[in-house]
Amino acid sequence: MTAPETQGAPPPVPAAPEHLQGRGAWFKRLPVVHQVRQSVGLQRGMLVTGLVLCAVFVVTAVGARWIAPYGWSQLRTPEGAFGAQQPPSAEHWFGTTVGGYDVLSRVVWGAQTALLVVIVAVTASIVVGVLLGLVSGYFGGWADRVLVLVADAVYAFPSLLLAILLAIVISGGQSSMWGGVLAAALSITVVFVPQYFRVVRAEVVRIKGEAFVDAARVLGTPHRRIMTRHVLRNSVRTLPLIVTLNASEGILTLAGLGFLGFGIEPTAAAEWGYDLQRAVADVTSGIWWTALFPGLAIVLAAMGMTLVGESLNDLADPRLRVRSRSRKVAGAVAATSVDAGSDADAGTTGPSKEES
Amino acid sequence: MRFLLIIPTVFILVTTVFVLMRATGDPITAALGGRLTPDQLAERIQAAGYDRPILVQYWEYLSGILTGDFGTTISDNRPVTEVLTTYGAATLELSTYAVLVALVLGVPFGMIAAYRRDLLPDAVLRVLAILAYATPVFFAGLLLKLIFSVWLGWFPVAGRVSTAGEIEMRKAGADSGFMVVDALATGDPAVLLDVLSHAVLPSLALGLLTAGVFLRLVRTNMISTLGTEFVVSARSRGVKERRLVTAHAWRPALIPIITVAGMQIAMLLVGAVLTETTFEWRGLGFQLSEYLQARDFVAVQGIVVVMAVIVAVTNFLVDVIAALVDPRVRY
Amino acid sequence: MSTSRVAHIEDLAVSFATDAGPVRAVDGVSLDVAPGEVLAIVGESGSGKTVTAKTILGLLPETATASGAVVLSGHDGAQTDVVHVSGAELRRVRGRDVAMVFQEPSTALNPVYTVGWQIAEGLRAHGKVSAKEARRRAVEVLRTVGIPDPEQRVDHYPHQFSGGQKQRVVIAMALVLDPGLIVADEPTTALDVTVQAEILDLLRRLRDETGTAIVLITHNMGVVADLADRVAVMYQGHVVEEAPVQELFADPQAEYTRTLLGAVPRVGEGTARAEARAASRPEGWADGEPVVRAEHLTITYPGRFRRPGFTAVDDVSLTIRPGEVLGLVGESGSGKTTIARAVAGLQPVTSGSLRVLGTEMRGARGRALAGMRPRLGFVFQDPATSFNPLLTIAECVAEPLVVHGRAASPAAARGRVDELLEAVQLPRSYGDRYPHELSGGQRQRASLARGLALDPELLVADEPTSALDVSVQARVLELFADLQAELGFACLFVSHDLAVVDLLADRIAVLYRGRLVESGTGAEVLGSPSEDYTRRLLASLPVPDPAEQARRRVSLATA
C-alpha cells in the first residue's frame, strides 16, 4: 500500500499530539471549538460553513430591530406609502410585497420569529422527550410498551399534518405574535417529542445493559440514583446532534405551516412561510423578489443547522471521522500509552484500534 | 408477530385525529360560525348529530371508518370518500414520479458518495443533498416555476393538463384519474406530451427533496456496510472494489435502507401536500389546503386519517419486504 | 533463497493517523515464510501482530501508511511487493497468492448471501468460471474443510452454521484458489476450547495435505505450541525474538519472551496451593453455614410470544463455604455467568433454591436483599464497560461507600478509596483519572477495589481476566490470590479457562449446557476427571509446551 491518495494538501500536522503537551487552553476544550479543531479538510469546511450560517441567523434574529430598515408590518414612512410589488430599489433593497411591506425587513424580522419558535420547540420537546424516554426505558414493563407504540404511531404520522391539527387546536389558526409563536412551537414540539423519546429510550435500554449499571444494581443503589447518576448523563450524549437536525426541521415545519395558512398573522410578526404563500401568485406574473428572499432565508438557516448537525454526527463517529494523514511513516510506538513507565500493563489499550 | 402492531397503530392514529379535531368544538361552528344565525347553526349541528355525547360520536366515527364512510364535507357537501377516490389518483401519480426521480438520483449517487467517501464527488453530492433537504419543497417549486415556466416558458405554470387535453380525454371517456393512463387512452401523442410537460416541474420539486433524503440514507448505510469485516474478507480474496460496492455491500445495506426509506413515506406525503398547493396539482394535498382555508374540518379529518393510515400500512409493507430480503428472517 | 520462501518481509514500518497524531504500530519488522511452514507471530495487544498480518494482504485501513517491503511469491514464481504495488495488481495477488482467515467467523461471512455464492465470488474475481464449475469447486472445498453434506450446505446461509462450522467455511473461502500462503488472524480466539482443537487440527491437516504455508497470528502460547513450526515474538511493534518452536519454549532468549511464557497459566499449578489452604482450615469448618448454597437451582429465560423459554441453568446444586474459592468452569452457553448473576441478585431464580449469605434469592426483591448486598462484591468481565465513563475512578470506587451510608459523599470517602487503590497496587493519583485514561489491567484492579470497598464476605468474579493480555492477567490473578488470602473472603470465580480457575480455586465445578457435570477439588477434577466432558475439555486445552502437546495430540487421536 503506497501513500494513500489525499484530497488536496492536508493541513500541516502538529508535531506531537496536543493532549500530550498538557491540557492546552481552556477554550480549546469547549464543545464546538473542540470539534472544529478535531476536524480536517472538507469536514472542517462543512462544519465552519454551517457555524457561520447559524451565527448569521442568530445575529440577524437577535439584532433584528437594529438591522431591519423598517418594521415588519410597516406600510409607509412619513414620506408616503411603500407601494405594492415594487422591484428592488435603493429604498427597498429586496423590493416590496403584494401587501405593501418591505421584503428585507420581513426577512430580517422573520429570523427572529423562526429563532423563537425553534428555541421554544426544541427546549420543550427535549424536556418532555428525555423525561419520558428515561423513565420508560429504565423501568420497562407494559407502560413502556404502550408509550413505544404511541411514540411510533405519532412518529409515523406525517409531521406537518399533525402540526396543522395541533395549530388548529391550540390557536384556532390565527393569533398574536407570542400566541402564534407559542402555538407553532408547541405544535412542532408534539412532532418532536417522539423522536427524542425514541432516541433517549434506546440509549437508556442500551446503557441499562452495561456492566457499570449492573455494578450499581449489585450494590443495591436506589433506582433514582442509578437513573440520575449513571443512566441519564450517559444517555443524552447524542442529543446535541439531534437538536441541530431538529432545529432545521423546526424551521421547515414552521415555514410549511405558514405556507398552508397556519402561521402568524402578518401584522403580528414576520414569518417566511406566510410570505412565500403570498408570493405564489407573484411568481406566475414574473415577480421574483417576493419569493426569492424569504425562500433563501429559510434555505440558509435550515442548511446551516443541517451542516452543523451532520458534521458533528460524522465527528462523533470514529468510523466517519477523517484524520489528517501523513505520507511518511511517523509517530512513536505506543505513544498513546496512558501510563508510560509507571506500570507496564498496556492491557487492552494498544496504540492501534486494529488489534483485537 | 410484531407485524400485528399495525392494528393498534392505526387505532391510535385514528383516535388521535378524532380527539384533536374535536378538541376545538364541533366542525359546523368552526366552518360556518359567524355566517349563520345561532338558530341555524344549532339546527345544522343537531341534524349532523354533533350535539350527542362525544363517545357516541366516536363510536359512530370508528364504525364509519370500518365501512369506508368518512362523513360528508361541510363546505361543498360531498361524501369524503368521493373526495378521496377522485383526488387520490393524482397524489399517487405525483408521489410515484417523485419516488422514481429519487431512486434514479438518490441510489446511484449515494453509492458513489459512499465509494468516493471524503473525496470531492462525495463532498459535492453531500452538499447538494443537504441543500435538497434544507430547501422547502414549495420554495423549490416556486423557483422551478419562475425559471422554467415564467422566464424560459418551457413548461406550463400549473395544473395537470391543459383544457384542450382535458376535452380530448373526456371525449375518449378516460377518467381513471391517472393522467398518463388517460392520455394514453386518447391515443393522441400531443395529449401525452401535454400531460408529461405538466408533471415535470412538480415531480422534480418533490423528487429532488426525496432524492436528497435517499442519497444520505444510501451513503450512510453503504459506508457502515463497507466497513464490515465481511467486506474486508471479500477484499482479501481479490474481489474488485466496484463489485464490493454493488454486490457484497449493497444487499446487506439494503435492509436498513428499505426500512428507513419506508419511514420517509410520511415525509413524501407532506411534501406532496405542499407541492400540489404550489402547482395547483389537483390531488388530495391541494384539496386538503383548500378545505383548511374553508375550515371544513370534516373533510380535513377524513383526508388526514387516510394519509396517516396509508403511512402506517406502507411502513408495515416495507417491514415485510425488508424481512423478505433478509435470509436471517426468512429461514 | 528467493525461491524457497512464499513471503519475505523486509524492514516493514506502519503508522496510523489517530486523533492524537500519527502512531507507529510496526517498526523495522523483517520475516521470511518458507513453503509449507507454519510461522506463528505471537504478541499481546498493541504489539503490531495483526497490523503485520494485514499488511501482508495490503488490507490496512486508509489511515495507515506503510514503508519497507512485503514480497509475495506466487506458484508461477512471480514476485509482488504488496507495499508498493498498484491497486489492480494487489487485487490479483489477494486470494491467489495469499488468503486470510479471520478472527470472528460470524462477522467475516456476508449474512445475506449463501456460502456457495461467497466462495464462488473469490473464484470469479480471478478469471471466468461457469456457475456449474464454481459450484462444483465450492462443494469440493467445503468437503475438504470437513463440512458434512456439502452438496446441500453449499446453498445455506451463514446463520445456519454453528460457530466452528462458520470458521471452517471461512477457511474454505481462503483455500479455494489454492494460495501458497494463508494468514490466519487469531483463528480460534472466538471459539470454545473444544472447537478450537478441531480447527487447529484442520489447519494442520491442510498444511500437510496442500503444502500451504500458514502465518498464524495469536496471543495464545498453547495454540503456538500446538501448530507452529517457527515463532516470531512481537512486542511494541518490534520482533524481539524469532526461533523454531521447540527452541523458543525450551530456551527463550529475549527477556520479554521469558516473561510471556512465565505468565501463561498451566493446569496443575494451583493444586499444591489449594491443598495447603485446605490443610490449614480449622476443624469443623466444613460443617459451618455456607455463604452460598444452591439446591436444584434452575434458571429459565422466558420465551417471547409464547415460544418455550430457554433453560440456561438446569438443576444445579453447589455450595461455597466461608473463605472458600469455588471455580466455575464451562464453555459459552454453559450457564456459568447466569449463575454468577443470580448469586448477585441480577437474575431471578426460576425454581429450586439459592441461599446467598443467609438470604433466599428465589422471589426476593428490593428490600429483602438490602441486608445481603453490602456483604457481596462483584467484579465484571469487561473492564471497558464496568465503569461509568463520566465519573472518575475515585468516584466509582466510592459509590458503594456512599450508597450504603459509610460516607456522606465521594469526597468524604476519599481516604478509604486511597487505601483501596493502594491495596490493588494503583497509585492514589489514579483516583482522579477517568476510566478511559486507564489500561484494561488497571481498570480491572480498580474494579477489584470497588468490589472490595465494603469488605465483603463473598466476591463474585465473572471472567475478570478474560479480556486481558496474558502478562496482565498473571499480575491481576496474583493480586487476587494475595488479597483473598489476606482478607479471607469467599469467592465464586467464573472462567472459561481451566488453567486460570485452577490457579485460584479450592474447588472446581464444571458446567456443560446448564448442567453441573463434575465438581471437586482441583486435584480431583483436573487430576482424574470422572466425566467424559471434563476429559474432553482438558484434552482440548493446548499446553504451552510443543513436545508435551505433540504427545497429547497423539494420545488424543488414538483414544
Automatic annotation (TrEMBL), chain A:
It comes from the Bacteria. It is found in: Cell membrane. GO terms for cellular component: plasma membrane. The chain crosses the membrane at residues 47-68, 114-139, 146-170, 176-197, 239-264, 287-309. It is a multi-pass membrane protein. Residues 111-309 form the ABC transmembrane type-1 domain. Its main location: membrane. Keywords: Cell membrane, Membrane, Transmembrane, Transmembrane helix, Transport. Residues 327-356 are annotated as: Disordered. GO terms for biological process: transmembrane transport. The keyword Repeat does not apply. Belongs to the binding-protein-dependent transport system permease family. This is ABC transporter permease. It comes from Isoptericola sediminis.
From TrEMBL, chain C:
InterPro entries: AAA+_ATPase, ABC_Ni/Peptide_Import, ABC_transporter-like_ATP-bd, ABC_transporter-like_CS, Oligopep_ABC_C, P-loop_NTPase. Gene3D superfamilies: P-loop containing nucleotide triphosphate hydrolases. Pfam families: ABC_tran, oligo_HPY. Residues 7-261, 292-538 form the ABC transporter domain. Keywords: ATP-binding, Cell membrane, Membrane, Nucleotide-binding, Transport. It is a peripheral membrane protein. It is found in: Cell membrane. The keyword Cell membrane applies. One of its GO terms (cellular component) is plasma membrane. One of its GO terms (biological process) is peptide transport. Its main location: membrane. CDD domains: ABC_NikE_OppD_transporters (cd03257). GO terms for molecular function: ATP binding; ATP hydrolysis activity. NCBIfam families: PRK10419.1 (NF007739), PRK11308.1 (NF008453). PANTHER family: DIPEPTIDE TRANSPORT ATP-BINDING PROTEIN DPPD, OLIGOPEPTIDE TRANSPORT ATP-BINDING PROTEIN APPD. Belongs to the ABC transporter superfamily. This is ABC transporter ATP-binding protein.
